[in-house]
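Narrative of activities, Objective 1.

The group set out to show that a structural description can be obtained from nothing but a protein's sequence at a throughput compatible with the screening campaign. Below is one input-output pair from the validation batch, recorded exactly as produced.
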Amino acid sequence: MMRRDRQLRCWLAGLVLITCFSVAPVQAAVSGSSTPPIFNEKELFAYRAKGRGSAAGQVFLRASSGKAVTQAGASIYLIPMVSYTRSWFDKYVREYSCPSKSSEPPMTQESPTECLRAVMAQLLSDKRLIPYLRMTRANPTGHFWFTKVPAGRYYVVSPLEGSGGAHQDERAVGMAWLTLDLDAEEKATNLVVTDCRSSLC
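Output recorded for this entry:
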């Protein structure tokens, strides 16, 4: 009986060792994949020059009433879609988690406006990226234009900090976005840039 117990213990110890050695590389691979991508300026060179394309559309959010809410003067960014910006976009925009209402006490939860500013600060804090970004502002109806845009893939992103009518159900705060593939000399018009929780995305 003692011999059988000893064999069982040896077998279990061997199983534990095998499991440890086989799991360790997997954990290392997973933790390595969460590191942010390295800034590769070669991916961005084509986005620095002036192009012949253009992009125009309207940026807005949907209020709880269903009304389109625009913000005069809202910043709209045209961001090249490369590995470095894709990481930021997937983390901070696509999985956008800023609160839509500031019902929580201000000490425990940052306001939606502060959250939006922090999201954009994550991107704009890297000065190496600034030469490749384009920015314009929305007019009072939320319309915008970009000109002299080189061909490429872009994110169109706009943090809207609340506007619309005087009533609460006509106001909205959030991130509006769109992905755009622009060919050389293409004139993309009637782009709809909104929060992609609506049916328009």
